[in-house]
Design a protein that fits this description.
alpha+beta; 6-stranded antiparallel β-barrel; 382 residues; elongated; 6-stranded antiparallel beta barrel; Pdz3 Domain; Thrombin, subunit H; single chain
Length: 382
């Protein structure tokens, strides 16, 4: 071997002893002067939480979707009714109208008729109605029926701005347990919704008109001051009643609210719109709703004060108060109508309420110690 070839092999061998020439799988040998150290353990893998399940675009429950849909569709029908009173500043010599009370109402038709409670508008000096668009209009009372706590107002608003409430079919029956949705203006708050169920039917509640309002709806949907006159709706967004009052010692909702049923509203409101009053039928006799004679004598029933000449009662021989040398003498006392007892004017009013002129009813009279039964034709009374 020639000297030049031998020198090349020595150089190549020396170069292959360098660390950079070792194979990647071969461990480096520690030098005698440096102690060997163990390689650090690899770090543990990071803990990665599993991805959250994807939510549907609309994750609300069916009940939530129903409440939202009813509110968005019906809230334009709910309005705010505000009373105003005159405040006189005698020192400054000026008078100012200021809000004195507020309630709720709902749009009846596109002619501007608004339905609310009678007690919301009673003794008001001036009234305003505010629509969902926040436009406010002066309102006038068209008519009222205090015995049902119903009043009808009218505003001069364009028809496109008015969304009438939807009524259920006349034959539909309300059932305990149905969903109840109340829309109102509690404590002056803007368009508030509460939900609950129909808790009971056929409740009797003493109204502001001096008689019992019968067939009231009881609901646990929260009804607070300011909700009065607002609509109570079913799950289809149809009117089932008008929120009227609560049973509460604190003045706030205690889960017992009452509403005038839609059938009463359906019967009363058209009469108020057309005539300004409700057609009332009677027996063709004069009575005292205050029952002063009955209370003085301790008599159950309703005393006939006088008989209207020419009325069916007059033709049937019904007797009113008479006179004798000793003073007034008692005539007939109404103690029953249509096979139901009559203990007072409240009973008589509610037993005749809803009947029509010309309808014949059986009337039981107490005449002295004798009970007399007559069939009388009902007539319109003022």
């Amino acid at each position: 071997m020639s000297p030049s070839i031998r020198a090349g092999l020595v150089i190549a061998f020396a170069l292959c002893l360098a660390p950079s020439c070792r194979s990647s799988g071969e461990a480096a040998t520690s030098s005698p002067s440096e102690p060997a150290t163990a390689a650090p353990p690899p770090p543990p893998p990071a803990s990665v939480p599993p991805p959250a399940p994807a939510l549907p675009a609309d994750f609300r429950t069916e009940d939530e979707r129903n409440s939202i849909e009813v509110f968005e569709r019906v809230s334009p029908s709910a309005v705010f009714v505000t009373q105003k009173q005159l405040v006189v500043d005698y020192w400054a010599g000026r008078a100012t109208e200021v809000p004195s009370g507020a309630g709720t109402g709902f749009v009846w038709d596109t002619k501007g008729h608004i339905v609310t409670n009678f007690h919301v508008v009673a003794n008001a000096r001036a009234l305003t109605v505010t629509l969902q668009s926040q436009k406010t209009y002066a309102a006038q009372v068209v008519g009222s029926e205090p015995r049902k706590d119903i009043a009808v107002l009218r505003i001069q608003a364009p028809a496109p701005e008015l969304t009438p409430i939807v009524l259920p079919p006349p034959a539909s029956k309300l059932r305990v347990g149905q969903k109840a949705i109340a829309i109102g203006n509690p404590f002056g708050l803007d368009h508030t919704l509460t939900t609950g169920v129909v808790s009971a039917l056929g409740r009797e509640v003493e109204g502001v008109g001096g008689v019992t309002i019968r067939d009231m709806i009881q609901t646990d949907a929260a009804i607070n001051p300011g909700n009065s006159g607002g609509p109570l709706l079913d799950s289809a967004g149809r009117l089932i009643g008008m929120n009227t009052m609560i049973f509460s010692k604190s003045g706030a909702s205690a889960g017992i609210g009452f509403a005038v049923p839609v059938e009463t509203i359906r019967r009363v409101v058209p009469q108020l719109v057309e005539k300004g009053r409700v057609e009332q039928v009677g027996l063709g006799v004069q009575i005292d709703p205050q029952r002063r004679i009955e209370r003085r004598l301790g008599l159950p029933g309703v005393v006939v004060l006088a008989v209207i000449p020419g009325s069916p009662a007059d033709k049937a021989g019904v007797r009113g108060l008479g006179r004798s040398a000793d003073g007034l003498t008692l005539g007939d006392v109404v103690v029953g109508v249509a096979d139901e007892p009559v203990k007072d004017y409240d009973d008589l009013y509610n037993l005749l309420d809803g009947r029509k002129p010309g309808e014949r009813v059986k009337v039981v009279l107490l005449r002295g110690a004798e009970r007399v039964t007559l069939e009388l034709e009902l007539v319109v009374v003022e």
